[in-house]
Amino acid sequence: MPTTPAAAPTTAWAAPAPTIGVSTPTPRSPRGGPEGKTSYPVQLVQPDGRRVLDREHAALVADVGPDRLRRLYEDMVVVRRIDVEATALQRQGQLGLWPPLLGQEAAQIGSAHALHTDDYVFCSYREAGVAYCRGADPAQLTRLWRGAAHSCWDPAEINMTNPAIVVGAQGLHATGYAYAAHLDGAEIAVITYFGDGATSQGDIAEALGFAAAWSAPVVFFCQNNQWAISAPVRVQSATPLVRRAYGYGIPGVQVDGNDALAVLAVTRQAVERARAGGGPSYIEAITYRMGPHTTADDPTRYRAAAETEMWARRDPIDRMQRLLRREGLWDSDFEDRVRDRSDEVGARLRTATIEMPDPEPMDLFEHVYTTAHPLIDSERRQYAAYLEGAPQCLPTPPIPQAPSTRHPQ
Amino acid sequence: MPTHPADSASSIDSPSPVTTTTTFAGALNAGLRRAMEDDPKVVLMGEDIGRLGGVFRVTDTLQKDFGNNRVIDTPLAESGIVGTAFGMALRGYRPVCEIQFDGFVYPAFDQIVSQVAKIHYRTQGKVRAPITIRIPFGGGIGSVEHHSESPEAYFAHTAGLRVVSPSTPHDAYLMIRQAISLDDPVIFFEPKRRYWDKAEVDFAALDQDPYPLDTARICRAGEHATVVAYGGMVRTALTAAEIAAEEGHSLEVIDLRSLSPIDFDTIEASVRRTGRLIVAHEAPVFAGLGAEIAARITERCFYQLEAPVLRVGGFDIPYPPAKLERHHLPDPDRILDAVDRTLAA
């Protein structure tokens, strides 16, 4: 579990030693950089709402004034409402499944606020919060989870891929997209989200290798929420996950993932590095999955209530509210505004989900290929006839044509 | 010498044929070069394809001429090659990936089957993955394990992929260009033991009159039985047909060319004339493409078939050591044995 010191060292980003030489064994420290020095996760706001004295990272968010702080808070509250609403809809039989993001709001909203519109997001399946910040219509967020489609939104509209179910595959997609953007001369950043479990996947390892070799403008954003379904993070790795980056020559940083301001700061640093041609970065956001892995999971079977209670005291939304109150940015008008916005988004999601039409049976056969395909076309025809009650019989193909005159007979 | 009578016929029809003697590998190289000239978004990705020109030299000189941003020597990781190609495709590129050998494609299997094949369906047509994955396949070159496999059935079984295999230099040139220009992902199987086959190829004529990618080609007309083959086995089937002709049996040989979709209409029309069908491939017979062809043609031609559809293929064993592969790979004799059995029925 991360400690939360009042002050952090000035340089949190650790990078591999620039030259290869005789290495001395590095002392094992829970969050040590590659040189063995102890570093702590970047933190700008403590759980009690007090600012942390960290000039380097505070400077990255020096422009974040009252309005932006309130906006971070509002987005976190709205996203929590989306999550609560969707979880309830699953319990009510309106969704087949939902992967709750409860507790990870700061990691998602803080990082999403660092992105530009033309940046591109490659997510896993738990980033409904990022999708909301990218401008996804709340009415679309449940489409996949209701079983109405395999996707939620048009990726081109919000520059963000749809929920990716195969764990870790998206890291390579992000790297390829980033490299292509680099070839185009586009000054954009690409960010890919994945969890602690995904760090064990070969695709994430390969993505780190390709990104480093190509100096691709991609940010690897690991939400270490401590659990991959029932497997604690120690099952995935004997070292801090951020260290995975160092071996590839990629700078990495740990950040308090429940501190939206700190997440915003380090993500800004990483995306600016990417846009400026500085290559890939790795962020390990230390957070906690307060809910189950998905609505099909029962975390009481594998983790202690005391652990969850401890993390509840580090709640990202409470923390931001305490900061706003301490700094005199909280008033009833703001409170009302946030509540109204949450109600509005929650109602839109709920209504849209319940009223979402089922797809038509013939949609089965659409978009398998971009072009006509004889097998799909014939199955479409046959199944349509079957549904209309046409008698089934053995295929009666048309009288065969003579082979084309191309063929000498 | 052109392998296909059809090809020599079309060459004669051309007003001023300008033919070039080229190998199968050389024809692929010419096709790749032409595709890269035509579309600046075409990029080649793979292991050792740049400076070396590929272990079979299929991409020889292309990096020198197009630069290392378009002919990319990737790290040695197949899932990485296909996964990053997928990301590049999302940004409008048309990647052509080379998997060095058939037996090395499996690390990329998830990216191919779960991502490349499904993205168009997943996004209801909003996202396309125009990726060509070139795989040298099949045996007959005396190589070590994992260098002689025929994994085409895995991919033909996956919706969303097109699977093709040229058998001649003509088709190598034509089909690689068609595969790259197609918006569907294409698994492009190259019969590696035919890389050194030579032919007189008229590239301009092929450009002018491209034979459709998903249409089979009757490469030898015959009356007594139909033999369907693809990739490296086509030449074997043609040799068998020559021998059979000396014995008085007239075999019709069909080069399948596209393994998904399969041009069943051409096979059906042939079988309606011959009444007998043999499918030959290097891959193990069990649950192979021959099984699918046998089932479909039996459905379509049950009353025209004079004998059960026969399959000639590799045994249902892992690919054997090189000293045993001549027993495993169907040769003209094994095809002729099936011919004898179908004619005796």
How would you portray this structure in words?
The complex is a heterodimer of chains A (409) and B (345). With 409 residues, chain A is an alpha/beta fold. Chain A has 15 helices and 7 strands. Chain A has helices at 55-60, 66-91, 105-112, 128-134, 143-146, 155-158, 169-184, 202-214, 233-236, 243-246, 260-275, 305-312, 316-326, 332-355, 374-387; strands at 120-122, 190-195, 218-224, 227-228, 231-232, 252-256, 281-286. The model of chain A is unreliable at 1-10, 17-36 and 402-409 (pLDDT under 50). Chain B folds into 2 domains: 18-208, 3-Layer(aba) Sandwich (Rossmann fold); 217-344, Rossmann fold (3-Layer(aba) Sandwich), CATH 3.40.50. Chains A and B meet through helix 7, helix 8 and helix 15 of A and helix 1, helix 4, helix 5, helix 6 and helix 11 of B.
Q: In the CATH hierarchy, what is the class of the largest domain in chain B?
A: Alpha Beta
Overall geometry of chain B: globular
Q: Most extensive interface: pair and counts?
A: A-B, 52 and 60 residues
Oligomer: heterodimer
Q: How is the biggest beta sheet of chain A arranged?
A: 5 strands, parallel
- The level of helicity of chain A is 40-55%
Question: Could you outline the blueprint of secondary structure elements for this entry?
Answer:
The complex is a heterodimer of chains A (409) and B (345).
Chain A: H1 55-60, H2 66-91, H3 105-112, E1 120-122, H4 128-134, H5 143-146, H6 155-158, H7 169-184, E2 190-195, H8 202-214, E3 218-224, E4 227-228, E5 231-232, H9 233-236, H10 243-246, E6 252-256, H11 260-275, E7 281-286, H12 305-312, H13 316-326, H14 332-355, H15 374-387
Parallel strand pairs in A: 1-2, 2-3, 3-7, 6-7
Antiparallel strand pairs in A: 4-5
Helix pairs in contact in A: 2-3, 2-4, 2-13, 2-14, 3-4, 3-11, 7-8
Chain B: H1 5-13, E1 20-23, H2 24-38, E2 42-46, H3 62-66, E3 71-73, H4 78-90, E4 94-98, H5 109-116, H6 119-122, E5 132-137, H7 152-156, E6 162-164, H8 169-181, E7 186-191, E8 198-201, H9 203-208, E9 217-220, E10 225-229, H10 233-246, E11 251-255, E12 258-260, H11 264-274, E13 277-284, H12 289-301, E14 310-314, H13 325-328, H14 332-344
